[in-house]
């Protein structure tokens, strides 16, 4: 007989064969009574130990007086006790070899310094005993597969999971419970629901790692206010993608108010939302905007047989809604490809002569008198590779009308067995129909939404995700790490670094004296620009440290004198490295390009409208540092000012690819030099196609 390896603490916590309820109680609605009721209702078949110092039995089950009376090696202990007793109880669990502890009590890190110190002590106790803690300040967990509900929230059994359930991982226990209700309402199988709370010992990343190896989990639905191990999560997201599993994330923190709320809720300090989103989406996570969208996206991923590999087709029964759908999908950037001549011809054979073949396709009310219409029109669309999904936006009206429409649609889907996502969206929310139709649709892998707008939003998110997965990636070529000085690197040295990377900069050189400046200007040709150089002078224009469009040696002399006088008046102790003399650039379209290294998430790049537009419009995008040139060009096309780059009102199209090449090289630089904290290239001046883009100003900061 093969010797089984010892079980890990997280496996003992999530799949316990023995459970202790510390604070068990017969009092209805108490936490201890609720946990016991959940376990009894679920038919828990493992060993169950109740602990209450004031009782010898509860509901006919024997009660122990203390944790010290437990047998050695209980898998999981649920602490349904006041906060004041938690530390002592966790220490006692450690002495008895308990694998995992679930702590409901609040009042730890989220309450201030004293609570944080107690939470750190909890972590220390757990570490000394090789024990895992879920919480504190959590609602516990539910293992729906094995029937182990260790929570005080009343938990009815979930639908059978089979091999493709959804796992819930949420720092917020209340939101985990809310999401669970929503999934059960949709008849969606849940494998696990895990509330991590303050995460004294175990974090969402630990549970994701476990669930990726859980064969009955296909989708991980997450609500996270703060990732405590971002780099680990990014690696796990990439692994999920390789395994064909999906992670859908709802992450509050776009606003400063939401970030403050997160700190007081689970003791988490939420970081930069947009950096987080850029990194996790690139790693293969779908980010939902709302709780509703979180559920909708997850259902599509779970039910549908595949990801959409192209735009959407829409069948509807209203000309007005056809126009509304075109508007809304355009807003969502959900592609609605027009019909090819071959597809239009095939649909004409299936449609009455008065219905023109289009996308969206308005079937009018013809389905009421011609039930076979759906069976005839679905095959050509489903067979066309231009369409990765189909939305049936159907008017149900009332029970009698629904009885006419549902059966032929269901029979057509059953016969055709579509291999791409098909979504049913009721046009009239609240219309009465038999729940049996809903059950049949879902059993065929067809999600049902009570409004088409919800279907379009969720489908747009999934379609964009599928496009990212299918995009060809050409990471930057490896760049040799450079020996960089720490701190702020002034412009002239920053530009030398950029030039070594193959990034174009203006002709020029550093001058220590006025005669040197005049000599350099004569060599590179007038007009020129002077820029004062010092690591302490990041904002040169604030002290008149920049002089533009100087046409001769006399102009340089006057500007030199004025510049040094102004800087000395503003910063008497500053000693300049010198003055950068450069060829005055030709006017073009200004862009901003930059990089920053987030302490949690690592490096990201920034591209956007430069010069004054950078601040006035905030027209920028954060992007990962390992995109290909083609992918970077696409990012430029998503800027608000993108029309100005493509030949606006008769002006020539600009060489966006040259700018993308600069960004690509910058990405290679920051990936190869992780000590680079920040790079600011503003502006990069862009010229018509076939002319190179030029970095006119630059600043690098190194840790």
Give a topology summary.
Blueprint: H1 9-14, E1 18-22, H2 31-42, E2 47-51, E3 57-58, E4 61-64, E5 76-79, H3 86-95, E6 100-103, H4 113-129, E7 132-134, E8 141-143, E9 148-150, E10 165-170, H5 173-185, E11 190-195, H6 204-212, E12 217-223, H7 230-243, E13 246-250, H8 256-265, H9 273-283, E14 285-287, H10 291-303, E15 311-316, H11 319-332, H12 341-350, E16 361-362, H13 366-369, H14 373-383, E17 387-394, H15 399-416, E18 422-426, H16 435-443, E19 448-449, H17 452-470, E20 487-489, H18 491-500, E21 508-511, H19 514-524, E22 528-533, E23 546-550, H20 553-570, E24 578-583, E25 589-598, E26 602-609, H21 612-617, E27 620-623, H22 629-637, H23 656-672, E28 676-686, E29 694-695, E30 699-702
Parallel strand pairs: 1-2, 1-5, 2-4, 5-6, 6-7, 10-11, 10-12, 12-13, 13-14, 15-16, 15-17, 17-18, 18-19
Antiparallel strand pairs: 3-4, 8-9, 8-11, 20-30, 21-24, 22-23, 22-24, 25-26, 25-28, 26-27, 28-29, 28-30
What does the model show?
- The protein has 703 residues and is α/β, with parallel strands linked by helices.
- The chain folds into 4 domains: 1-140, Rossmann fold (3-Layer(aba) Sandwich), CATH 3.40.50; 304-470, 3-Layer(aba) Sandwich (Rossmann fold), CATH 3.40.50.261; 507-583, ATP-grasp fold, A domain (Dna Ligase, domain 1), CATH 3.30.1490; 589-702, ATP-grasp fold, B domain (D-amino Acid Aminotransferase, Chain A, domain 1, 2-Layer Sandwich).
- It is 39% helix and 21% strand.
- It is built from 23 helices and 30 strands.
- Helix 11 packs across helix 17 and helix 22 packs across helix 23.
- The longest helix is centred in the middle third of the chain and has 19 residues, at 452-470.
- The protein starts with 8 loop residues before the first helix and ends with a strand.
